[in-house]
Each structure stands twice: as structure tokens, then as C-alpha cells.
């Protein structure tokens, strides 16, 4: 049953070839969000995983991590912390730069977003090279948080991000993966 639910979400993910540049296949969760059943199953998979864990906050990475993370925080009765792209937060921030699969970027958090010792779940839509998730982990840890787990809808293991996250000692959970021995699913 659990695998059927993961497959339902995976089948709803759209693959967009050659975007944002030639040779890159973008994995788009928008169809998951548009399909009430797939969206509910996705959130329920996360809720069931975390409902018995002792967590204080959910942090979501700009921008699709905001969607999944904020709904998950609501369902778990937790606060939500945004990890934003540089220059988007109005108060004092801490920042972390990183390398993307196809460029460089910086993310920021408000300097008072978490308190020392808080147990935080970090959420994004996708793990590729892991740069964004690793930057989020570093920001949370710099502010004194304990990152209980990193979570994403999609893992692209061939790009090495999940290995890089594992190397930090941070547990990682993903709903589905694309690439490697796994066949690409058609868009739903």
C-alpha cells in the first residue's frame, strides 16, 4: 500500500526536458499540487512519517519547499520558517551561498528564525546536487537548531545530493526518485 502511494505521487510529477537549459530534465511537482488526491497523498506521507517525532518547527526552502513545508507544518501543528532566496527577507538575516546544478545562489533566514536546540525538519521539493538543502542545513545549524531530518518530494541520486547530505550526518527522506535504475515515469 505504501509503495502504491509513493507511485501515485511519482506518476503525477511532470518531466520537462531541456529546462532551464539544454540537457537538464526538470522534475515539476506542479501537477501533484493541482491534483487534490496526489497532493493529499503527498502531505499524508510526510505527516505519517513525522507525526510521532518530537519537532519544533518545519523550515521550507524557497519556493516549492514553502508549499509543502507550510502545509506540513500546519498539519503537524508546528511553526513554519522560510529559507528564502537572497534579498527577500525584511529583517536581519544570515546567509549561505552554494553551487547549483547549473549556477550559483544564496539563501537566507531571519537571524531570529530559530532558537538554540529547536528540533527542525527541513523540506524542499527536490534534491539534485544538494546545494540548496546543504545551505539550509548550515543556516539552521549556525542558528543553533538541530536539523532532525531533511525531506524532499524527489531525489535525483545520480547528481550526488543525497550522498552529500548523508555525509553531513543529517538523515534524508524522499518520497520518490528519478534516474539510475529507476525508469522515468510519464507525466500524469
Automatic annotation (TrEMBL):
<comment type="similarity">
    <text>Belongs to the purine/pyrimidine phosphoribosyltransferase family.</text>
</comment>
<dbReference type="GO" id="GO:0006168">
    <property type="term" value="P:adenine salvage"/>
</dbReference>
<dbReference type="GO" id="GO:0006166">
    <property type="term" value="P:purine ribonucleoside salvage"/>
</dbReference>
<protein>
    <recommendedName>
        <fullName>Adenine phosphoribosyltransferase</fullName>
        <ecNumber>2.4.2.7</ecNumber>
    </recommendedName>
</protein>
<feature type="domain" description="Phosphoribosyltransferase">
    <location>
        <begin position="45"/>
        <end position="158"/>
    </location>
</feature>
<keyword id="KW-0660">Purine salvage</keyword>
<dbReference type="InterPro" id="IPR029057">
    <property type="entry name" value="PRTase-like"/>
</dbReference>
<comment type="pathway">
    <text>Purine metabolism; AMP biosynthesis via salvage pathway; AMP from adenine: step 1/1.</text>
</comment>
<dbReference type="GO" id="GO:0016208">
    <property type="term" value="F:AMP binding"/>
</dbReference>
<keyword id="KW-0963">Cytoplasm</keyword>
<comment type="function">
    <text>Catalyzes a salvage reaction resulting in the formation of AMP, that is energically less costly than de novo synthesis.</text>
</comment>
<dbReference type="Pfam" id="PF00156">
    <property type="entry name" value="Pribosyltran"/>
</dbReference>
<dbReference type="InterPro" id="IPR005764">
    <property type="entry name" value="Ade_phspho_trans"/>
</dbReference>
<keyword id="KW-0808">Transferase</keyword>
<dbReference type="GO" id="GO:0003999">
    <property type="term" value="F:adenine phosphoribosyltransferase activity"/>
</dbReference>
<dbReference type="InterPro" id="IPR000836">
    <property type="entry name" value="PRTase_dom"/>
</dbReference>
<dbReference type="InterPro" id="IPR050054">
    <property type="entry name" value="UPRTase/APRTase"/>
</dbReference>
<keyword id="KW-0328">Glycosyltransferase</keyword>
<dbReference type="GO" id="GO:0002055">
    <property type="term" value="F:adenine binding"/>
</dbReference>
<dbReference type="GO" id="GO:0044209">
    <property type="term" value="P:AMP salvage"/>
</dbReference>
<comment type="subunit">
    <text>Homodimer.</text>
</comment>
<dbReference type="GO" id="GO:0005737">
    <property type="term" value="C:cytoplasm"/>
</dbReference>
